[in-house]
């Protein structure tokens, strides 16, 4: 009887040790899985921000092999394609994202953004119309404003730009876009004001400086604005002002501005030299 008890105890002990070993193995395996998830998430974030865009495209493309239903990977690929300026491919990728379970309003806005980059304005408007009014983000309203601009719906455009400006702490870029919209409509005074606001928000934004000079030139104001500028920037802005003057028919003023641009530039200013020679030849 005692032998039976000992055998039973040994068997029970063996089963217990085996169960413990299995539990330990399972715990270790789950721990490694958790570590892998964390590592993958970190790597995905790196690829979306710091990596070369085309390298990121290759990474997400490889990661999607056998994981086509992973919306996070498909979204990463779409974002990376936009960063790589492969916009036609990005449109196809964003469409896949929006067809997957778990797609968000932000994903539809991402599709609209990619469509705008390919010049598909009507399709972009259709995509934005699918986004509910409750999705109030800077990106959404910036794109809404751009689509309204393309359709020459100026009241809508102004309203959307105003909302977009209120939804970001860095409005310089959208103010520049809004100013350019005003410039194309011939509303030069408002355009000048908006470009000035953009520069106050971001003094490194040369596009806004150049647009400001265009707005002043369109009003036959050929003096450079008082804004932060380096020597090369000053020469470039004088060149832009010269071309604006010539376009307005103020040829002698334009010629003088070209000469000033050439003398201001610290190196050889080929574009201004060419323009001056063409003017003299004419």
UniProtKB/TrEMBL annotation:
Signal sequence bounds: 1-21
List UniProt keywords, sorted A-Z: Signal
Keyword Repeat in record: no
What InterPro entries does the annotation carry? TPR-like_helical_dom_sf
This chain's protein is named Tetratricopeptide repeat protein
Question: Which species is this UniProt entry from?
Answer: Parasedimentitalea psychrophila
């Amino acid at each position: 009887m005692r032998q039976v008890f000992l055998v039973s105890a040994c068997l029970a002990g063996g089963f217990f040790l085996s169960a413990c070993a299995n539990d330990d193995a399972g715990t270790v395996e789950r721990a490694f899985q958790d570590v892998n998830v964390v590592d993958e998430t970190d790597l995905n974030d790196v690829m979306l921000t710091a990596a070369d865009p085309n390298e990121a495209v290759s990474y997400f493309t490889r990661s999607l092999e056998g994981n086509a239903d992973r919306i996070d990977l498909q979204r990463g690929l779409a974002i990376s394609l936009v960063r790589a300026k492969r916009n036609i491919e990005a449109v196809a990728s964003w469409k896949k994202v929006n067809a997957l379970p778990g797609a968000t309003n932000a994903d539809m806005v991402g599709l609209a953004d990619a469509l705008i980059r390919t010049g598909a304005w009507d399709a972009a408007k259709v995509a934005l119309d699918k986004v509910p009014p409750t999705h109030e983000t800077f990106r959404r309203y910036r794109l809404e404003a751009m689509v309204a601009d393309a359709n020459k719906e100026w009241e809508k455009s102004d309203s959307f730009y105003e909302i977009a400006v209120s939804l970001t702490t860095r409005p310089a870029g959208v103010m520049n876009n809004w100013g350019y919209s005003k410039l194309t409509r011939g509303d030069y005074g408002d355009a000048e004001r908006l470009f000035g606001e953009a520069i106050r928000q971001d003094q490194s934004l040369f596009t806004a400086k150049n647009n400001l000079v265009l707005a002043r030139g369109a009003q036959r104001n050929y003096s450079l604005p008082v804004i932060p500028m380096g020597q090369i920037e000053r020469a470039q802005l004088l060149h832009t002002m010269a071309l604006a003057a010539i376009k307005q028919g103020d040829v002698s003023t334009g010629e003088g501005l070209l000469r000033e641009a050439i003398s201001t530039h610290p190196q050889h200013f080929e574009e201004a030299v060419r323009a001056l020679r063409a003017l003299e030849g004419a």
